[in-house]
Amino acid sequence: MTFMKWSRHFVTGIDLVDGQHRGLVDLVNDVAPLLSRGEPLGAAAADALLDRLSEYAQTHFRDEERLMREGGLEDSCLDLQARSHHAFVQEVALMRRQVAADEQIDGQLLLRFLANWLTVHLLTDDRLMARQLALIASAHTPAEAATLARETKEDTAQTVLADALIDLYAVVSERNRKLVEANVQLQAARAKLVEANADLARQVDQRSRELAATNADLLREQGELQRAIEAIERTQGRLLQSEKVAAVGQLAAGVAHEIDKPVGIASLNLASLKDYVERLLATIDATAPAVAALARHHPARLAAEQAWQDIELDYLRQDIPDLIRDSADGLARVRKIVTDLKDFSHREEAEWQDADLNRGLERALKVVWNEQHDKVKVVRDFGELPAVRCLPAQINQVFVNLLVNAGQAIATAGTITLRTGQQGRYAWVEVEDTGSGMPQAVQERIFEPFFTTRAVGQGSGLGLAIASEIVQRHHGTISVDSQPGRGSRFRVLLPIAGPAGETRP
Question: Is the whole-model pTM more than 0.70?
């Protein structure tokens, strides 16, 4: 199976450049099976692949910049292309540092970088360069070529989304750079800690030989020290996870804000385009009888019929609505992703209230019932619960996300069982389905932001991450118990009195 297909949208019309791009696409497809396994790529294999990328960059970037200089492009355009090339080189260098620090690299991360960079570079930088060279070749000045090339972008919606993607790619690249640097520092700190532990062990050994009478005390102290180190490591893990979620939430809020307006503009432009096309076709239909009424060999009739034939009018009547509909569907998916990002960042605050979880679970079921009633049977096993101090809208969002996930796990027909009860100072809610279930590897990552087992374009991977973040905010826990082929059971545990520091009115 080909990971990345060569598309006509990638073609610049410059044989040398297109050939080198095809070579990089072939490289991506060659290594895709290895990188997409979900396993870390060892240092030897990673270095070999990065060497190939460095060799490609030296040849391709040199040729592109030579063509731009020989073609007479403005210095500003050449500088823009050079900066893009420099960013690629920096990213490769950053990954080398990652390999040197960890002796491995995330293969899927490397694969996504190659595919995303190649797509963005081809669709924007190189196509813009090719248009300028073509315009200069047709007797335009470099300044005219630069202006006309930017004014003749092929698709407004595509351009807006591509620009947003470039901005997002830059943010993510900078984030990755900082994470790699932090990881290198962490490795150095760990090396010092190992060295300090080794020195301590030598001191303890020497002391044990010198002071046999105190050997038992020293062993007891060593055990206490080990337990302290383990406690520190556990605390460090929780802090790192908390910082990761906070960073992702901040990034999500920023990305949602930046993409929301361009998507709205693109939607309005698409609606206007649809109206214009319909009016244009209606005008053609209105004039068609008049053209048909002319004599068979009348020049005006022949010209009109030839024009309709040249533009393939019948084909356009069929294809344009499909293209507009597909574009509208794509924008709708982007809007859904933006909504999920906003939900994940929790920008809107609500008031803490005493809520009935059983009633909230029923309301959540009503929200998703229209999509599931034809294939799902719901069983209720509600216990008596006291009012729970919480943010009701957010807790209801947790229930909705769990119910949607349960419904998606059931392919044709099945049962969702809802249970509630009280466990000491906590109230618990369970959502169990008879769906496909999950292997252990998926269960370990199911609450990670942007992790999904669904096909590309069918989910953002934020639903369960949002649920987990909300539950943690309430100082509760969320867990999953699942077996492939036997379904899954999600359990939410919430403190009845609410998080520490929240008082009743």
Answer: no
